[in-house]
Amino acid sequence: MKIAIAHMTLKLLSKKLNFERAKKVVHEAKQKGAKVVILPSMINLGPAISFTSPAQLKSILKNHAERIPSGGTAYFLSTLAVQNSIFIISGPILERAGPKVFLTSLAISPTGNIVGKYRKIVLSHSDISIGLSSGKSLEVVDMKEKYGIMAEWDSYHPEIARGLTILGSTVLINFPRIEPVFDKKLKKILETRSIENNVPIMSIGGIIKSQDQFLAEFPSLIYDPYEGLLEEITLESKKEEKTMKVSDEDKVVLLELQNYTQKPQLQEQKYLMELFTTVYKDLKKKMEGQEEEATKHSE
């Protein structure tokens, strides 16, 4: 299956412009034969969490968190998928669900139906402080290949990737939070996750602007468990046959995914689950024992 990775420029808090860019990228990907296109995090607002003040953030969460599927971004992505007859996987947007706000990734079929919704599980201290809530469920999306979705700090915790692999993922997609400074540890972490789970990983970065000012660029990264880093995509990276430069600020890389994926064996999945369960049952027992000892000493 041919997939397209969109390495895009997003403008902070400029939904109309960001949507226009996404339209061009998806159209070009479809024209080049892609069956799936992967769009970056915060396709509507850009990564406002990383580039706005705490006071502005409160306003953004209040006024820009959207309901799914009735919100404007979900509707836009569904329409885009139908118009281009293509699967779309989009990085997290701010989702409003009752009193809670989540960072939620979407997978949409060519008929416009939402076939996957993943609420980011791992929260940082700053996430909690601004009022974000944690998701409670892993998400594997079946689009011929099985895509396990991770967002932001999920990749720093091996349990998430291992759980997605146990559930049958043949490829993992990571949506990092784009910040002013790129965390170089992320490259090592993603390569490790790829090796320890024996699956390829695609991490979708991008470029951030405010007005006409450049703020940051995170590379998009493709890892193979045997070959390591296959490609590091930036606007300045070498242009190859499989790369389309949609504009001076947007790039799309095409990838034949079947060249890298392996179908998981049910027996192996069961073994991994047994191992996973054994370790965490033992951890729970020992932690409970430590708590009991601490309570005794405090009395």
TrEMBL record:
Keywords: Hydrolase. Pfam families: CN_hydrolase (PF00795). The keyword Hydrolase applies. PROSITE patterns: CN_HYDROLASE. One of its GO terms (molecular function) is hydrolase activity. Residues 1-259 form the CN hydrolase domain. This is Carbon-nitrogen hydrolase family protein. It comes from Fervidicoccus fontis.
